[in-house]
């Protein structure tokens, strides 16, 4: 498996523009999560794994007397976020690895969505969160959880280990960490935090036909896609899409459904 980080910077080359276009479902889930924060409007908020910045910008809109900092370890994402959302005076972005946060008693709220499953060891992240919180501060995290994307992962495994594609995946190891209640009922205590709620939440990822599904795969399944030479990626993605809809056909309106599991942690 190739290193996913170098000096705290993502080794995957994100196409932030593609992600921005193909992450509407993630944005919808983030909006639902933001509502759970019940922000008063004067808080200082940290958004861990801010990606392209659009969710961080929505948080900024809810903070007329506050501010939000979005951090991410992707240079491409942070550049895109600055280019597209710098009009918000109460919003900033920094290139920071979530495992190496050095904020001290700065934030009223720490928030993260669709990001922390990219991190294998969560204890450094939780220690950083603990240090970053003001007294009485709150934490709300959502990430891919135990059992996430089982159906599409089954399809991927079949394709990856086929004779046609296996040569590109000889030293491949599963790139994400899908944790559950067992881990998050313990880990916050290890860093002197107290989890108020730890919940696995089923989500229906809806994509608009083959084009929507292929766009989502291209934009977000980088550990698989970037193993394949660029000239063969369309073929690889097309095979994933065809195999998936063969097993899980679109609904009557042509929408394709991918069953996801999110782990929500409230501290």
Describe the protein.
There is one protein chain. With 267 residues, this protein is of the alpha/beta class. The protein has a domain of 182 residues: Rossmann fold. It contains eleven helices and nine strands. The strands form two sheets. The protein has a seven-stranded mixed beta sheet, sandwiched between helices. A two-stranded antiparallel sheet has the order 1-2. Helix 5 links the parallel strand 6 and strand 7. Helix 1 packs across helix 9 and helix 9 crosses helix 11. It is globular, with a radius of gyration of 19 Å.
In short:
The protein has eleven helices and nine strands. By secondary structure, the protein is of the alpha/beta class. Residues 40-145 form the Methyltransferase domain.
- Residue-averaged pLDDT, rounded? 90
The description of the largest β-sheet is: 7 strands, mixed
What fold name goes in the CATH topology slot of the domain at 5-149 and 174-205 and 262-266?
Rossmann fold
Helix-residue proportion? 25-40%
- SSE-based structural type: alpha/beta
Highlighted features:
24% strand, seven-stranded mixed β-sheet, 11 helices, 267 residues, Rossmann fold, 9 strands
Question: Which SSEs are present, and which pair or pack?
Answer:
Layout: E1 5-6, E2 9-10, H1 16-22, H2 24-37, E3 44-48, H3 54-61, E4 67-72, H4 75-85, E5 91-95, E6 107-113, H5 123-132, E7 133-144, H6 150-160, H7 181-184, H8 187-190, E8 197-208, H9 209-220, H10 222-225, H11 233-247, E9 255-266
Parallel strand pairs: 3-4, 3-6, 4-5, 6-7
Antiparallel strand pairs: 1-2, 7-9, 8-9
Helix pairs in contact: 1-9, 2-3, 6-11, 9-11
């Amino acid at each position: 498996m190739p290193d996913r980080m170098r000096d705290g910077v993502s080794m995957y080359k994100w196409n932030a523009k593609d992600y921005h276009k193909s992450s509407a479902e993630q944005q919808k889930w983030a909006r639902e999560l933001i509502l759970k924060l019940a922000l008063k409007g004067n808080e200082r908020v940290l958004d861990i794994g801010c990606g392209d910045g659009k969710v961080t910008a929505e948080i900024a809109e809810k903070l007329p007397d506050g501010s939000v900092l979005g951090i991410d370890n992707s240079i491409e994402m942070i550049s895109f976020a600055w280019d597209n959302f710098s009009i918000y005076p109460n919003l900033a972005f920094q290139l920071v690895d979530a495992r190496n946060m050095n904020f001290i008693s700065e934030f009223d709220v720490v928030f993260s969505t669709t990001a922390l499953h990219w991190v294998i060891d969560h204890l450094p992240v939780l220690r950083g969160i603990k240090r970053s919180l003001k007294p009485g501060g709150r934490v709300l995290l959502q990430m891919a959880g135990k059992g996430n994307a089982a159906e599409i992962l089954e399809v991927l495994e079949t394709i990856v280990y086929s004779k046609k594609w296996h040569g590109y995946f000889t030293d491949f190891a599963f790139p994400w960490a899908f944790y559950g209640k067992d881990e998050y009922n313990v880990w916050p205590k290890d860093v002197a935090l107290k989890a108020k709620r730890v919940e696995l939440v089923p989500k229906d990822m809806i994509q608009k036909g083959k084009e929507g599904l292929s766009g989502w795969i291209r934009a977000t399944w980088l550990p698989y896609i970037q193993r394949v030479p660029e000239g063969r990626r369309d073929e690889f993605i097309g095979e994933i899409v065809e195999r998936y809809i063969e097993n899980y056909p679109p609904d009557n309106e042509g929408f394709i459904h991918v069953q996801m599991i999110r782990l929500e942690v409230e501290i």
